[in-house]
Design brief:
The chain is α+β, with helices and mostly antiparallel strands and about 140 residues long. It has a single domain, classed as VC0802-like, CATH 3.30.2130. The protein is built from 3 helices and 6 strands. Strands 2-3-1-4-6-5 form a 6-stranded antiparallel beta sheet. Strand 2 and strand 3 form a beta hairpin. The longest helix is centred in the last third of the chain and has 11 residues. The protein is globular and about 40 Å long. The two termini are about 25 Å apart.
């Protein structure tokens, strides 16, 4: 990917992280989550619904998916970053994704208006939480 250069276009390394990111306050949900295909079942309140050209993905607790009979193959831990940030902030996603990638932990991110939510392999949750807490 080409990066613009010249006046007004700082290099990525020169963009400072906001001071408030010193403690990103990762918070691990106690329930496992899954990604399933299809519209949310009646009576189920999913964490997120993502509508792509190829179809609908629902992210919900494993208990809700099991109760609704939904198929899934990835069980994830949800880690919410309680740090205050804006959707326009530069570098927060890169900071935590790089940290987890260097440790061999996959990370799927959903950004809300209030917080970023990371989904990592359920078996890697404690390790991810430790790494994120050290940032």
């Amino acid at each position: 990917m080409a990066h613009p250069e010249g006046p007004g276009y700082p290099s990525p390394a020169s963009v400072p992280a906001p001071a408030g990111w010193r403690d990103i306050q990762p918070d691990l949900s106690g329930e496992p989550y899954v990604f399933a295909a299809g519209e949310p079942p009646a009576g189920v309140s999913p964490f997120a619904v993502i509508r792509e050209d190829e179809g609908v993905t629902v992210i919900l607790t494993r208990a809700d998916a099991d109760e609704a009979g939904l198929a899934y193959d990835y069980v994830a831990a949800r880690i919410t970053l309680r740090v205050g940030s804006a959707l326009t902030d530069v570098g927060l996603t890169a900071l935590f994704s790089r940290t987890l990638a260097e440790a061999g932990i996959s990370c799927n991110v959903i950004a809300g208006l209030a917080h970023d939510h990371l989904f990592v392999d359920w078996d890697q949750a404690a390790r991810a939480l430790t790494l994120l807490g050290a940032l």
